[in-house]
Amino acid sequence: MYSMNDKSALKQLIESDEFSNRLNLDRKTYGLVFDRRTLNAIYEVIKKYDIDYIDFPISSGKESLIFNVKLRNGITRALKIYKMSTLKFSNTMEYIKGDYRFDKEKINRSNLVFVWAQKEFTNLQSLRDSGVHAPKPYGFYKNILLMSYLGSSKGPALQIKDLNGGFDEIYVKLREAIWKMYNKAGIVHADLSEYNILYYRNNPYIIDVGQSVSTKHPMALEFLKRDIKNISTFFIKKGVKCDPIELYSYVKGDTHA
C-alpha cells in the first residue's frame, strides 16, 4: 500500500540499485511487477490527485491492474494501471489506426500504453457526455487512469455474469446504452461481453473501453456485430428473449424506437 507519507520512500525505491536488480525476475512474475516508469507514474499521480493511499486491488487482468484508492478528503476512486510489458503492439494498433481521433498520433512500442490510457479516458468522457452509465474519468498520466469507483465499502460492483437474476430489465437498459454509445457518443465498444458490464445502483455500467473505436473506424460495423452477438448469446442463456439481428437493426437505425 503506497501512501502520501510513503512518497519519499517510494521515490527512494525507484532510484535505488536494489530496484534495478529486482527487474531480473523470471518471466512468470515479470508481468506482475511495476517497472521503474510505472512507479514513477504512481508517484506523480499520488501528488497530482492528492491520493492518501492506494488500497486493495479491485481486479487484475492481462493488460491492467485496478486498485481502490482513497483521496485525502476521504473520497474513494479507482486507479487503473496499464501494464507496460503485456500490451501487444500489433493487436492494439488495429483499434488505434483507423480511429480518426488517434490515428495521427506518433505511436511506437514505448509510448503505446500511454496512448491507450488517453484513449480510454477520452472514450469514458464521451460515454458519460452521452448519458451512458460508465465510470467517470478524472484524469490520466502516462499509463495510469483515475476514475470513479463503482462499488461500496464491502467491495466492487459485480459483473453481470455474477448476478442471480433481473436479466430482462438489465437487457432493456443495456440495449438503450448500446444505442446511445453508437448514435450519441459515436463509439463501438469492440469487446463488449458480460465480463465488462458491471451492475451498479440498478443500472448496467460499461467498463474497459480502451479498445473502443469511433463509428467511423473501417472495422466499426464488424466490431458492433461481434459485440451484439456476444451480448445476445449471454442473455439468451439467461432466458431473455432477444434477437441479435433485431438488436443490430435497432442500434443502426436512424430512429430511436
TrEMBL record:
It is an enzyme of class 2 (transferase). It catalyses: L-seryl-[protein] + ATP = O-phospho-L-seryl-[protein] + ADP + H(+); L-threonyl-[protein] + ATP = O-phospho-L-threonyl-[protein] + ADP + H(+). The keyword Protein transport does not apply. It comes from the Archaea. PROSITE patterns: RIO1 (PS01245). GO terms for molecular function: ATP binding; metal ion binding; protein serine/threonine kinase activity. Its EC number is 2.7.11.1. Keywords: ATP-binding, Kinase, Magnesium, Metal-binding, Nucleotide-binding, Serine/threonine-protein kinase, Transferase. InterPro entries: Kinase-like_dom_sf, RIO-type_Ser/Thr_kinase, RIO_dom, RIO_kinase, RIO_kinase_CS. The keyword Kinase applies. Residues 24-253 form the RIO kinase domain. SUPFAM superfamilies: Protein kinase-like (PK-like) (SSF56112). CDD domains: RIO1_like. Belongs to the protein kinase superfamily. RIO-type Ser/Thr kinase family. This is non-specific serine/threonine protein kinase.
